C-alpha cells in the first residue's frame, strides 16, 4: 500500500528499510504491475529474507498524513495573512470588486483559526498566586455569563 501511495524509495525511507532491499522486493514481486497475480500464484523468492521494520506501515502513513496536515495549515495560514493584509489596503470600487476574495480569505482563516467557544477558553494561572507566594491586587471577575449572553445574541442576529 505504501509503495503504491508514495513509490518504492519513499516507502522504504518511511519504513526505515534499505531502499535497495525494497526495490529488489518490488521487482521480484512485480508490485507495480497493472495486473498483479495473487500471492498464491507467486512463490516468495528464496533470496528474500524477512525483515522487521522499526516502524509499522500504518504508523508511517499516519506520520506522513499528520505532517501534511501541519504543512497545509502553515501554508494556508500564511496565505490568509498575506491576502487579508493586501485586501485591507484596497479602497473604493476595487474593494467592492474583491469582496468574493475577501470572503474566501475569511473562510480559510476561520478554518485555520476556528473561534473558541466560552467552554474552550482556558485560564492561565500563575503558580506563585496558587501557592500563596504572591499577592493579587486586582479582583477577579467572572465574565462567562456575559460571554455566553453575547454569543447567544450574536447567533440570534
Written overview of the protein:
This protein has eight helices and no strands. It is mainly alpha-helical. Among the domains are: 2-53, no CATH class; 58-112, no CATH class.
What's the arrangement of secondary structure elements?
Blueprint lengths: L1 H5 L1 H8 L3 H11 L27 H32 L3 H6 L1 H14 L14 H4 L13 H13 L1
Helix pairs in contact: 2-3, 4-6
The average pLDDT value, as a whole number, equals 74
Name the overall outline.
elongated
Taking all Cα atoms into account, the compactness measure Rg is: 28 Å
Largest beta sheet, briefly?
none
| Secondary structural class | mainly alpha
SSE pattern = HHHHHHHH
Number of strands: 0
Strand content: under 5%
The rounded distance between the terminal residues' Cα atoms is 50 Å
Number of helices: 8
Low-confidence stretches: none
Query: Fraction of residues in helices?
Result: 55-70%
Amino acid at each position: 500500500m505504501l509503495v503504491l501511495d508514495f513509490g518504492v524509495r519513499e516507502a522504504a525511507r518511511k519504513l526505515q528499510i534499505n531502499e535497495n532491499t525494497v526495490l529488489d522486493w518490488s521487482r521480484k514481486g512485480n508490485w507495480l504491475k497493472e495486473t498483479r497475480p495473487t500471492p498464491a500464484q507467486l512463490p516468495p523468492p528464496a533470496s528474500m529474507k524477512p525483515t522487521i521494520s522499526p516502524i509499522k506501515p500504518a504508523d508511517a502513513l499516519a506520520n506522513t498524513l499528520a505532517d501534511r496536515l501541519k504543512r497545509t495549515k502553515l501554508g494556508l495560514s500564511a496565505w490568509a495573512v498575506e491576502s487579508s493584509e493586501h485586501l485591507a489596503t484596497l479602497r473604493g470600487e476595487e474593494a467592492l470588486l474583491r469582496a468574493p476574495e475577501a470572503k474566501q480569505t475569511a473562510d480559510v482563516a476561520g478554518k485555520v483559526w476556528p473561534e473558541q467557544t466560552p467552554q474552550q477558553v482556558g485560564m492561565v494561572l500563575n503558580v506563585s498566586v496558587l501557592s500563596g507566594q504572591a499577592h493579587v491586587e486586582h479582583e477577579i471577575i467572572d465574565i462567562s455569563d456575559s460571554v455566553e449572553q453575547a454569543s447567544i445574541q450574536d447567533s440570534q442576529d
